[in-house]
Input
Amino acid sequence: MAHTFINQIEPGVTINDIYIVKDPILRSTTRGDLYIAMYLADRTGQLNGRMWQATEPIYRALPKPGFVHIQGRSELYQNNLQIIINNINVVDPAKVRIDDFLARTKKDQKQMFEEIKKTVSQIQNAQLKALTKAFLGDAELMEKFCNAPAAMKLHHDCIGGLLEHTHNMLRVAVAILPLYPNVQADLVLAGILLHDMGKTEELAYDMAFSYTDSGQLIGHINKTLLMLNQKADALRAKGTPIDPEVLDALGHIILSHHGAYEFGSPKLPATPEAFMVYYIDDLDAKINQVESAIDSEQSDANWTAWQNALQTRLYRKRLE
Amino acid sequence: MAHTFINQIEPGVTINDIYIVKDPILRSTTRGDLYIAMYLADRTGQLNGRMWQATEPIYRALPKPGFVHIQGRSELYQNNLQIIINNINVVDPAKVRIDDFLARTKKDQKQMFEEIKKTVSQIQNAQLKALTKAFLGDAELMEKFCNAPAAMKLHHDCIGGLLEHTHNMLRVAVAILPLYPNVQADLVLAGILLHDMGKTEELAYDMAFSYTDSGQLIGHINKTLLMLNQKADALRAKGTPIDPEVLDALGHIILSHHGAYEFGSPKLPATPEAFMVYYIDDLDAKINQVESAIDSEQSDANWTAWQNALQTRLYRKRLE
Amino acid sequence: MAHTFINQIEPGVTINDIYIVKDPILRSTTRGDLYIAMYLADRTGQLNGRMWQATEPIYRALPKPGFVHIQGRSELYQNNLQIIINNINVVDPAKVRIDDFLARTKKDQKQMFEEIKKTVSQIQNAQLKALTKAFLGDAELMEKFCNAPAAMKLHHDCIGGLLEHTHNMLRVAVAILPLYPNVQADLVLAGILLHDMGKTEELAYDMAFSYTDSGQLIGHINKTLLMLNQKADALRAKGTPIDPEVLDALGHIILSHHGAYEFGSPKLPATPEAFMVYYIDDLDAKINQVESAIDSEQSDANWTAWQNALQTRLYRKRLE
Amino acid sequence: MAHTFINQIEPGVTINDIYIVKDPILRSTTRGDLYIAMYLADRTGQLNGRMWQATEPIYRALPKPGFVHIQGRSELYQNNLQIIINNINVVDPAKVRIDDFLARTKKDQKQMFEEIKKTVSQIQNAQLKALTKAFLGDAELMEKFCNAPAAMKLHHDCIGGLLEHTHNMLRVAVAILPLYPNVQADLVLAGILLHDMGKTEELAYDMAFSYTDSGQLIGHINKTLLMLNQKADALRAKGTPIDPEVLDALGHIILSHHGAYEFGSPKLPATPEAFMVYYIDDLDAKINQVESAIDSEQSDANWTAWQNALQTRLYRKRLE
Amino acid sequence: MAHTFINQIEPGVTINDIYIVKDPILRSTTRGDLYIAMYLADRTGQLNGRMWQATEPIYRALPKPGFVHIQGRSELYQNNLQIIINNINVVDPAKVRIDDFLARTKKDQKQMFEEIKKTVSQIQNAQLKALTKAFLGDAELMEKFCNAPAAMKLHHDCIGGLLEHTHNMLRVAVAILPLYPNVQADLVLAGILLHDMGKTEELAYDMAFSYTDSGQLIGHINKTLLMLNQKADALRAKGTPIDPEVLDALGHIILSHHGAYEFGSPKLPATPEAFMVYYIDDLDAKINQVESAIDSEQSDANWTAWQNALQTRLYRKRLE
Amino acid sequence: MAHTFINQIEPGVTINDIYIVKDPILRSTTRGDLYIAMYLADRTGQLNGRMWQATEPIYRALPKPGFVHIQGRSELYQNNLQIIINNINVVDPAKVRIDDFLARTKKDQKQMFEEIKKTVSQIQNAQLKALTKAFLGDAELMEKFCNAPAAMKLHHDCIGGLLEHTHNMLRVAVAILPLYPNVQADLVLAGILLHDMGKTEELAYDMAFSYTDSGQLIGHINKTLLMLNQKADALRAKGTPIDPEVLDALGHIILSHHGAYEFGSPKLPATPEAFMVYYIDDLDAKINQVESAIDSEQSDANWTAWQNALQTRLYRKRLE
Output
């Protein structure tokens, strides 16, 4: 049965579907009766939910947050839509169609990953080849890499967003590297493949996008550097030692790819390759961010709302 | 006769060549004799010059600065090389091989300009087509465009530098525009062609690179905006009016292409096209700047000197 | 009949007056009846309006935004005042008393404009005289100049605000120029007259103050520079060429009069005249802003609310 | 006998005049003979001095720094002028014409002080009248006030500079206060009179301009606040108590008159009067700084050297 | 009778207690009846209050703000708790238990003050001894010192907070001064004792924490400097003159103890003692701020809400 | 034989000692003779050296830089001291007394290391105990830890400087931790021990202090994080797994201990322990930096030269 999305619910209809419950609170009315207030959400938004005949065991059983099956009815209350809940049951996350709850890249994830592997296979330098192979051959990591978002919000904030962003950056690199023959292509391609790999550990995306504890304490840039060195340690243990110079050159690209201290890079770019990865990353992220901001508002106005991260409103109108 | 470059002069040799004289001063020795102190320069550097048997008429006749034919001799004085001048004569600038005095792009200027014309001819939008044609058909302006430097220093600071920079930006745009199908390609191509056109009026480059008065008071960004509107006025007078919306969209790209207020942009990018021109400009300028800084030092050290504009030293060593 | 201002409407009274309708939305109640929610506004504020017996044709006929004649009644709903609408009819803007909807300078606009013309007529330099005459003689432009606000908010945000601000700046200049005899008075007076002329194109003020598309894409500083050069082109066509040096000196004052890059000036002041115009502009704007902030709160407290643009609260109490 | 200024000394002439000796050092030649190296200075510059037949008692007797009478001869050494000293004798500072050593305002100090007193006498508020009278009647302080420079460098850096700057600020205030009738004129006039009074304690100017220890540890802004409160304490002791509100309003003007934290103001302007004093101070200082920078270079070039404090070069050329 | 705290009031209970009334407004219902809307507060929060049978005399008698005795009843209105008031009477502040309304340090104020006196008595330098004695012996001032908060919010924002903060800073100083033997301990101890003494005049704390007018106009840093100099003037009058050098060294510590211009210090630290006081102050304030932020949220989450002043969320989880 | 330090060489004495040769250049005189120009250095400074009878083999044999035995003579040339070299021979670094060339901490390195071990042994948490033991037991690393400088310049820039700085930080922590009972002492102690461990790889200090390539590309903060994780990997391999939470909490302290992005910390402090380590580090570094700056100038002046890193001059005078 197709999921009824939150932003499609009309007033006065019957509800019998799965949603995410968030922030449930047990309260009592002035008459002393218990009820539960909560939010019900999917990837299109959230609504207030009220269960009037509640008990403490029902409240305790609720995940905070988590998936629940709701039976009830929508109604308008003071001009706001809310859901009156008759029955609420916990749902096994394994049985949920995650795409109803998290936006997913519109591109073909499998095909993008194949194209990435093909592009990276062009690397000539033996050590960079070994390193990138070690990453691409780590099935568990690649599973995460293909599904992680590229960011919490702003750009590529969807399942597969990191994959899509990395894939497009590699395409840009392949297109422009011939125009800059002195830039070491192998380093740029390897740098792009790895640059945000730590986001697989920084971001959680099982029900909604959030930061992991470890992600907040350490950050994806430093996580990526650790992953790189652990892969190198593993290769050395298997008899394929990686030169410190190779690790430092690649590590430097990772550390400096935000381009400025205030954006969390502990090192500023100091090689042509580091500059190129930084610019390709920023270009691809910003174009995606601008197009998303323009598309996400349902409006015919020529200008979007103020974009705080860009310190401007965006102009939507195209030339005829 | 081939020019003897300043950085190739050995001590104790005869000098009989053309140089730029700069900052000449008439002084008297302790015995009361007059002499002229000056700098002699070409594109490889400058040396102190001394003319010991000087007169006020000789001093008055000197251009300040300008080209002069020098007869004299090099000598070491306190371990510094200087030129002792016996004869000094003003030279007609028209008879000077300017390439001895100003660095020139290593690429073929004619070919680059042809490729630019070809690329820009792909523009579909009729009004942008008319506008870019009006620029490309302005022979006097294109003469300047093909010879102006792209900057006083830092990047593409050579005769033909603006052409080379614009040419490469267009090549980058052509390579990556297919990857961003929602970005209006016509606007990006026209924006790149025009983005620094005002540098033809901001920078002087007859003997050395310098700013014009007008360039310092108004700046190349605003000069470019004025040129755009004057071309549109001329087209309107000829019966081809340009819509205000087209002028505003293109003008916005010009005004915002430095990407930040502190870099002299009075507007921040507010369209996908403005973001794309800004990133392609910055990428091409920075890669050129980094490679120039690495190449310009005669050193085997792994690191360049401190680069103030980049707030780092640059790493020169390549992977093997 | 006198207009009943929004901030004077009591609960429970009959409404029969003209207001601006903003953001009307057609909705249906839980019973399926259609109603229209909207804002009704004039220069003193806005209220929620509800038309319960609505139809789609009524909704479609509404301007978004625009002037409407309202018949209905005020009532308290959940302690908020709202208007229940029985009849709503579109009104021809030409028949509206615009002063009910936009604040207007308290000073005499005609007299201020005459004083400006008299002051500017003291300019001795022939070319600056011709340029300022060309502006003052452009009736269509002067009509806008006399009515435009000086800013969207913060200072002189009223009909005639630009005129009042320019008028007062000229008075300050006339008062202090004798104290700075080396500052070129003609340039200062011409610079002040023109400095914000582009606001006539940057801001719209037919019903409420807003930015035009062109204003947001190009900005008033650059618009003013374009106007200056177009006036000079027109004068040249009529046989009165303006020296580039005059245009550059005046253009520089316009470009640098915000005094800092982060306030949108693409050039920093580099002449005594540019510094003087910058300081007189900032002084007059800030004193107006401070006095407006102090006056606009209806409060006896010694301090105003926090002023974000000034990073302080303001002290209202005067010495006895 | 007229003083021979440092910048007028020709090579090979006899020297018999008073200069400031700075940084004398006793050294020995390779042969073991003692000599003293030192700088000799007046307000036009400084030269190297050498006394070849020196003894330790001669060295010990020298002030470091201080006034000395020099007998000797100028000579060119490696193209630099230096003074060979035969005799050197300490001079009583009381017998020195200080104007040979420190630049002095070109305006009439006595007349400026009289005009200041006249302007300040217009203050109506009794307490501000008493306070300003207490300052103007403090003969010892006024002696310093009439001679102190307004700054170490940049603007009004001459004997009488503080007086000239304060005098001109008061003239500006008198000229524009009628245009801002809601600004409390008494507070502005008193605020201007006092705003930099602490510079009399922050700066030393007996031989050259320098900071006092106390000036560096506490700063002139806070010194001025202390002076204000000490004058108020003295008035209270004499039976004329000053209301705390008056002291706070005036103190706030003093503390905030640099207009920004990074310029050493511990408070940002929060009253119209504080804003006005800040702008008049900055306007008068900057115009003086710009005109001084333009005049101080002996050059016909259109542009001055780079002005670091203003982040631009300055344009010297005037309209014809 | 124990006070019923705002955050403990249940719906539907009788209220008979003292609260602070804030922002009372007299309004009329749609039927024309008068009622008063207000906030009722204590140190745990605030609620809406409504008195339906109100008269203008009742409204006029209310303090704005002030203490009132309330008789009434709590109820839920649209899911928000509010107080329906039957009787309201003004209460003499002297009869109020202030601890119900303002948080108080959990440490023993008397004991802390005794420990401070003991620590400060170790000062050897006679003049610093005299100065600190003069402060500690000023009973009226010490009464305020023992009760003032250290800040409006963020850290030690409670009755006795300034005392607790100063006390702990002295303990830190005593602990680490032996590790820095070249730092002058007497100056550090005296500097800590005085560093925020001006907060006794900057902050008001009779009902809630707020700034005084004088505090906002002058600031606690400058107030402290004035207090120091007034105490020195008083000592001089009694025959114990304090050397200017001692006052300047101590005054410098006070002025620079925020460590940066943007935090309101008009001077940057220039002595080892000034650096030490700055670091001890910042360390103690920040640790208190971090621990308070972690403790004040009732949450089991690993992370606090975003802390704007620290530009991060805080991690609450401890190692096991 | 005792080394004759560079800053003790008098003119006209015989030189027969070991120095570091830096930047040797082979040049020819005007007569065509070859000579070598170079710097000769030890830890007290450097002088120009000239070897007039040079050959290309001699030049080629010189280390660039490295230790050499010099025979020659000092002389004054244009008032500057230089060394005229007769013989120059390469010296085996192993035979050099390194303390003549690099400053060394004045404290007992062995004793400091013992005290550090004792302090760290107080850690209770089993995993932190294991981790710190793993570091303290790594003899090769501890050898470097005991000798590395804490910084290139500014503070603790001497052999053993890192040890001295870490040792003193631990002493400060032990002194103040009892005053902050909620701060987890074990984390603070472990964090201090490790915080700058990566400097052993970032800085080279065999002849002079310099950055390693790896140090510049990766930085000591990230190097420390890698070392921490490698030690944890090794412990896990030996059967002592470290919880990710422990590694993250400790890693966060390392990453955030510079306290601000612009100082190279990719994370801002988010735990009480991270704040404490940041403050103790900054306090100890700054006090050392201030005292060193005051001591290092040989001057009786009350103020040091301008300290760019501190944006002030420092006041040297102590209270009597």
